[in-house]
Amino acid sequence: MKTRLLYLNTHRLSAFAWQQGNLLPEGVFENNDDGLNLFAQYLATHNRGRFTLLANVAEEGHAHESIPFLHGADRQALITRKIGQHFQGTSLATATSLGYEKTQRKNEKLLLSALTNPGHFEPWLQRLAEAEVALTGVYSVAQLGGSLLKKLGLNCSRCLLLTQQDHSIRSSYLVNGQAHFSRMAPLSDSSIAGIASAFAAESGKLHQYLIGQRQIGRDESIPAFILAHPLALPAIEKACPDRGQLNFRIVDNHTAATKIALHTLPEDNRADLLFMQLLAIAPPSQQFGNDYHRHHFRLSQLRNGLVATGIVVLLASGLYAAKQFYDAHSLREEALTLRSKEAELNRHYQETANAQPQLEIDNDTLRQLTNQYTELARQRNLPDPAFRLLGQALERMPAIRLESLEWRNDTAYDTTKKTAQEVTVVRGSIAIAHTDPRKLLGVFDNFVDLLRAQPEVSISIVQRPLDIESGSALRGGDGAEEGTKPHPFTIEIVRRKSS
Q: Which residue segments constitute the domains of the chain, with CATH numbers given?
């Protein structure tokens, strides 16, 4: 979008197209009905660009205020009220924060500035609004003085800046880059000598005014920068020697134009082009236009934001689609590779299978038999745990003599069964030198209890060492022969385990 700069002075408005440091004149419109009509026609043919208005008028006021520490809407409402108290009747006003006082209350210091003759601006602003062009803001020449010195590397805390615009001399008092006071004096003699004399006279008047207002000390030295054409430098240096507390520094406006990348060099002492270039590349953060004046600019910002968002979404969608396409291509390549490997493995398998002895059964039947064998091997039971249990019990009961042992697996093949069972039949006898039946039965019962110690084991007694059936008398034997006679027994150990 093309940038256009409008320069408004007391008598006329000039339009320039700005393009990478070149200022191209596009029209001059006098401050009368004919000029306003021509300006409306100009806007109708150039309503696609963005416009910025730079004003050089005498009716510009500055005031200092201090407000409590506030934020948001409360702060803005108080600033609006303060501006109304100082500059009643104009909507072209702004406030610049100068920091906070170093006191307990932390009051905020403000510089209030306004263009105090809104009637001079309204006809031009009305034409801009009717044409629905994007007006970025309304600025004054005094606002740009500090930015110009900073770009030129002439930073100072307090100084004077004198420039020529149109047929007038503008004198500004700058504090930390902000214009705290600015006045415009008519130029009666436009010769080089007359301009040099006017610079000297206006700098002295401004210096005395600031001393009278106690903005600078009477004995305080302050620099005064004068912007002028190279041909006028000797005359200005002769007319403005350092005197008292006023130290003059003459700045070549061609050198200044080069430093701020302005390719259209000034033809005389006027600094209009320099300020317009500065406005195009580094506009101040504060401007005088209100929301009504900048309505179409805000709409253009919103429109451009939506377009930019759409472009970003489109690019993101394109990138996502490209990624998906790349992923799909990679998956296709991977699938082809896997199919190739599968074919190679199948070929190798067929070669290996053909080299082996051929069976009379098909692959499905062989696979089924293999699975059944695997399941049978998994369910296979060995007598090791049962024999280990019996051995531990026999070791603790030396009176028990093992005569025979029979082990069998009672689990039939069934893939659905979750438990397996094994049976151990133990035949033995008890040989002790006691004839007391209770002693014999106590040894036998202890032996059985040892075998029952594990929860998965159950004991079935087939034959006891003594007959204790009902109707039989429990009595001891007679003689030594009865004491050494073994007492046989038979028990069945059933052990269950999870498969």
A: 3-59+117-305 (no CATH), 382-498 (3.30.70)
Report the 10 Å Cβ neighbour count for 297.
20
Look at residues 385, 476, 372, 460 and name the one whose alpha carbon lies nearest to residue 422. Answer: 385
What strands lie across the sheet with 168-175, from one edge to the other? Answer: 178-186, 168-175, 158-165, 222-228, 246-252
What contacts 342, CB < 8 A, 6 or more positions away?
A: none
As given in the structure block, the two tokens for residue 97 are 């924060």
- Helices 33-45 and 118-130, packing angle to 10 deg: 40
Question: Following DSSP, what letter does each residue of 385-397 receive, concatenated?
Answer: HHHHHHHHHHHH-
This prediction's pTM: 0.64
CA-only gyration radius of the chain, Å? 55
Burial class (CB in 10 A: 0-12, 13-18, 19+), 180: buried
pLDDT (tens digit per residue) in 312-360: 999 999 999 999 999 999 999 999 999 999 999 999 988 887 887 777 7
CA distance linking residue 423 with residue 493, whole number of Å:
6
- Which region, left, alpha or beta, applies to residue 252 given φ > 0 means left and ψ of -120 to 50 means alpha? beta
Instruction: Count CB atoms within 10 A of the CB of residue 282.
Output: 13
18: left (phi over 0), alpha (psi -120 to 50) or beta: beta
Helices 384-396 and 437-451, interaxial angle, to 10°? 140
In tens, the pLDDT along 136-145 reads 999 999 999 9
Render pLDDT for 142-194 as a digit per residue (tens, 0 to 9): 999 999 999 999 988 899 999 999 889 999 999 998 999 999 999 988 899 99
Query: H-type helices in 223-294, by residue range?
Result: 233-239, 253-259, 272-281
The amino acid present at 271, given as its one-letter code, is: A
pLDDT digits over 405-440, tens only? 888 877 654 545 556 688 889 999 887 766 678 888
Asked if 492 contacts 460 with a C-beta cutoff of 8 angstroms, the reply is yes
- Would you place residue 374 in the very low, low, confident or very high pLDDT band (cuts 50, 70, 90)? confident
* Cα–Cα dist 12/132, whole Å: 21
